[in-house]
Amino acid sequence: MTSYAPNFTGRLRVKYRAAGGVHTQTWRFPTYGPLGVGMAAARDAVNDVWLELQNIMYDDLQCLGVTYAQEDSDIFLPTSLISAMIGTVATPVAKPSDKAYAVSFVGRTATGQPAKEFFYGIAELSVDVSGLQNFRLNPGENGAIDAAIAAANSFTAGLTLCGSDGTGVTWYPYANQKPNDYWVKRLRQG
Question: What angle do CA 78, 80, 85 make, to 5 degrees?
Answer without folding.
Answer: 120
